[in-house]
Amino acid sequence: MSQDQNHNRREYAHGALRRGDLAADPLDQFKAWLDAALEAQLTDATAMALATADPQGMPSNRIVLLKGYSDRGFTWFTDYRSLKGADLAANPQAALLFYWREFERQVRISGTVEKISRAESADYFASRPPDSQLAAAASHQSAAVADRPTLEQAVAKLSAQYPDGVVPAPQQWGGYCLSPTRFEFWQGREGRLHDRFCYVAQDAGWLIERLQP
Ligand SMILES: Cc1cc2nc3c(=O)[nH]c(=O)nc-3n(C[C@H](O)[C@H](O)[C@H](O)COP(=O)(O)O)c2cc1C
After folding, report:
1. Directed axis angle between helix 130-138 and helix 148-161, to 10°?
2. N or C: which end of the chain has fewer CB within 10 A?
3. What percent of the chain lies above the pLDDT cut of 90?
4. Could you read off the pLDDT of 129-171 as tens digits, one per residue?
5. What does the domain layout of the chain look like in residue ranges?
């Protein structure tokens, strides 16, 4: 980066994160920040980067949408045959990352991932619009395909098979839930002296520490 670009240095001035303001439970802290992003109607406020790694340790990263969170963990939906599905089958450890630029906030969450139940996945699939159901059922996510018409034909064939628009939830499609063992909340501050706090799961409760920026 050239010296000239320093003229455009971004000033972080949105807010502060103080030890006394932190929720004791990181899920409550996450809720406060996600709710702020949703209330501000930020584009893709629920979008999160999901990082996985294969058995050789090669990392891989992609955006998915958060569809729910609770004491159990953080849930998203996908094709179990995808690259992330293969990574998670071999190595169930993963990390999530949210970035809400307008608030100068980042949240990192890591833990262990499990598939949710078939029934929960089927319920969520049934709640999706018909074209989303068809696309998910017709596509083998992350497998190579000759061209777009091949995909469109697969969707048309499935659509003809289910003229009432009710597609059964495919076995290979469903939810994952990441049960968190570590959170980090990052708040941009003036002069690059940002606020960072991590929560690390203990036998009882969470250890909270301030981290240097
Ligand atoms: C904004 C956005 C939201 C996305 N949401 C999802 C999602 O919820 N589930 C999903 O499987 N892929 C989603 N994708 C596509 C993934 O980023 C990715 O291309 C796909 O899951 C295949 O990744 P993989 O081969 O690493 O498994 C989304 C992409 C973007 C840009």
Report:
1. 120
2. N
3. 90
4. 999 999 999 999 999 999 999 999 999 999 999 988 889 999 9
5. 10-125+172-211
Residue closest via CA to ligand 1's atom 22 equals: 142
| Rounded-to-integer distance, Cα 136 and Cα 119, Å | 17
Coil, helix or strand at residue 139: coil
- Would you say residue 196 has pLDDT above 70? yes
Instruction: Determine phi and psi for 129, rounding to 5 degrees.
Output: -60, 150
Predicted structure pTM score: 0.94
Sign of CA dihedral 131, 136, 137, 141: positive
- What is the CATH architecture of 10-125+172-211? Roll (2.30)
Q: Give the DSSP H or E segment for 179.
A: strand 173-187
Determine whether the shortest distance from the Cβ of 76 to ligand 1 is under 6 A. yes
Predicted pLDDT of residue 4:
46
Measured from the CB, is residue 83 less than 6 Å from ligand 1? Answer: yes
DSSP state of 145: -
DSSP symbol at 18: -
Partner residues linked to 110 by β-bridges: 95, 182
